Amino acid sequence: MESVLVSFDGAQALPRLGGMARPDGVAIVSERFWAFAGVDGTLREGAMPAPRERLGKVPLVRGLVRLGLSVSPLFRRGGVAKPRERLLLAVAVAAPLLFAFLPHRLSLIAGLAVTVGLIVWLLRGRTLALHGAEHRAIAAAEERRLAETWRGAWLAVEASTKCFARAFLLPGLGLQRITTREPRLDETRVALRAVESVLSRELAP
Q: Residue 94, CB half-sphere, CA atoms under 13 Å: how many?
């Protein structure tokens, strides 16, 4: 694994990566591929769906399409989420449409309850530490320090430390501190395995 990561560190360009932490692992995605590395050592891989060319040219629709594509590994069969979880997520997404028919106060209370419940469900178990591992792995790819991170020699998570930049990033950094915990090396390596899977396919000849 480390030798492969060294080769990625020496690459001239790497694709932009995104990710999502779950209680049982970390998902890493690029524009073309996704991978989910589990804490139990399993690895699931797949290809991201390609957006339709016509829809990609409409400004508002383009953003919605990209949002839908970004969560596609959650909803597809054989993806990240289990069948029961996919059903729960679908209900959570559809719930706001149903709340529109309720009285305003009741709709507000129901919406807050669903939001809080969804957040608690998403952040259960080891999710916070694995979220930190996801951030660290993606930052390592951006900084070309994947091999160092695999060895535990590079532990940075925050991307910017400049004072003037941090002033604008404070809300996001505050949220990041709430939703992440310092990951152990084995948790960081879970995220790095997913990164390695995606980059190997992206850079394949």
A: 6
Whether residue 45 is contained in a domain is answered as yes
pTM > 0.90: no
Q: What are the structure tokens assigned to 50, written together?
A: 């390609």
CB 44 within 8 A of CB 26: no
Largest CA distance in the chain: 60
Please report whether residue 156 resides in a domain: yes
Three-state DSSP state, 7: helix
Range of the domain at 51: 2-80+126-202
**Euclidean distance between CA atoms 134 and 27, whole angstroms:** 8
Cβ atoms within 10 Å of 84's Cβ, excluding its own: 8
Q: What is the DSSP string of 146-200?
A: HHHHHHT------S---HHHHHHHHHHHHHHHHH--PPPHHHHHHHHHHHHHHHH
- pLDDT tens for residues 146-205? 999 999 987 655 443 444 444 444 444 455 556 678 899 999 999 999 999 999 999 987
Total of domains in the chain: 1
Q: How far from each other are the two terminal CA atoms of the chain, in whole angstroms?
A: 19
Q: Are 46 and 33 in contact (CB under 8 A)?
A: yes
8: left (phi over 0), alpha (psi -120 to 50) or beta: alpha
- Residues 11, 69, 120, 103, CA torsion sign: positive
124 by DSSP, 3-state: which? coil
Per the domain annotation, does 188 fall within a domain?
Answer: yes
